[in-house]
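Loading example: each entry is read as two labelled lines plus one structure line.
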Amino acid sequence: MYRFLFFFTLLCGSFINAQNKELLYDFTDIPQALLLNPGMQTDFQWYAGIPGVSGISFQAGSSGVTVNDLFAEDGIDFNQKVRERLIHGVSSRDDLSGTYQIELLSGGFRGRNPTNFYSFGIYNEGDAIGYWFKDYAILGFEGNADYIGDKFNLGHLKTRGEILNVFHFGINKKVNRELTLGGRAKIYSSAVNFSSTKNRGYYITEKGENNLLANTIDADMEFRSSGMEEIYRAFDEDRDRIPGILTKRLFFGGNLGVGVDFGFSYQLNAQTVVTGSVLDLGFIYNSSNVRNYTLKGQATVEGVEVVLPDAFAPNDTDFWKELVDKVEKLVPFNQNRQGYISFRPTKLYGSLRYNFGKALPSRENCGCDYRYASYRGVERYVNAVGAQLYAINRPRGPQAALTAFYMRRLGNSLALKTTYTIDKFSFSNIGLGLNVQAGPVNFYVMADNLLALENLADSHYTSFQLGLNIITWGKK
Amino acid sequence: MILALMTSGLSCVERQDFDQYQDLDIIPKVPASLLYYEVSETALNNAPIGVPFSEDYNFDAFNEDFIADRIIEGSIAYEIVNTTSKPVDIVVTFLDENDRELDFTDFSVAAATSEPFVLEKTVAYNQADTQRVVKNISSIRIRVINRGDNTSQSSLKDPKVIFKSSAEFKVRLK
């Protein structure tokens, strides 16, 4: 039970934060936006994140049922709510998903060539998604007695998740006045990874050929994990070891992988910018502390079958054992320690931004060198509107979100961004981000789905982000 | 601090009652076949009239810990199809692991005429019966007695006595 609670907590921890950071994306005043588009237009001379608080974000999303749907004090029988709103009310395409991200180290500096900006850092990330295992839930909650002849889809089990550290280094290059390109190399150090995403098969109870009923299972299922067994064992034996195990695995003692981000910004005209980025094109090779489970095969059972020969005679055959052995042979449940590759959930961002209103003076420190005159940055404006597109690769295919935004700068010290986002979690997601620049101190805070704050328990989606940095533009 | 402000100052959470979880009942109703038993008319003809043939068959489906600890109530359905020319008595007895008799059900099966004789019976087991009988079943004894002759031959194709059975029980998972 404790182990279950521990992993449930671990998973819940992973089900926190937003993959879609529409408020932070292309918020050019904030260094952490470079993590969402390494090709963002930058004007910093250098920045340093305050370790541990330079970038904290978390999100949770449930496209199906909310906490309030089940646990509200509404006088409705709890079993009825579970049956109607969860078991039958949620689709197998609905999911519970999320991520958290905590920057441990973050910094950036402009190179000797002022058109180059380098950024680097380490962040810890957890990401997980679990689709609603509808047919399993029906089978578990109601059983198959009322579903004779109906197939229970074993493919409804679809989940993946991981906890890892990302070590990254990025280059942001202003190619010319219009175009900025960027790339980021990443090394992943994975502490925990699990996935069960390619399950196929069914379970059915139908009228038997010989006996009254026939139960058939046709399964091709796999659950792969790395890092979990070691933690599981420590949980049983000595829980004080868990932080040490996690730390070791997060800092190159676990499974390693590589990945890249790419991005660009292109100034269509003086006031219009188009941007795009693709993040986490990468993989992790899971070879240490791997434990995989498989269930593969097909078997039909019609109970113990005894066909007497033409003469009554005592029979020592254990038909029950024969039946159990036959099923275990036909549908073997195996374990193995074979290494496997897990791909990161690749993300895609795109945006179109139109700047208008009063132009603000540039803070960029590359205006004095004649060699880079043609690279000088574009003017910043007090207002911007636009649209953003976001997509992430998920086990059941891409999940997308569309965002409209308005951004307002109040001098160089304050900037606000508000967004309206449509995705599978919500059609009424209004977010607000605030960026404060007090001298060199930069602080930002952002929250999503503000309308849901009226009753957080009834929210399908929520996310928060904040960060604290020291930034300089190097201008006297 | 800001986070706390946003979550506690700006946001609201309607009162939730998580204790409702204690009321959750997860009780699936699970059906499955139990025992299929087939005896040919030839075998009946080869057996002495009126002398029962009895055999015990190991059956551990109900006394596996996972099931035995959770099974609540249900029923066992039987269907006997006789295409032989002789009536038979069949007695099904459930035995515990020490071969002690827990419960039995008997069937008097008429001979087939031009059509197979079909006998259906369902035995319900309430919670007390289930605790006393079903969860302790370790083997099933089938006893067949030929109440007819041992020379006649049914005109039906491939004459035999077929015993079918299935169980449908509620299992409390929570």
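The two ends of chain A are 61 Å apart (CA to CA).
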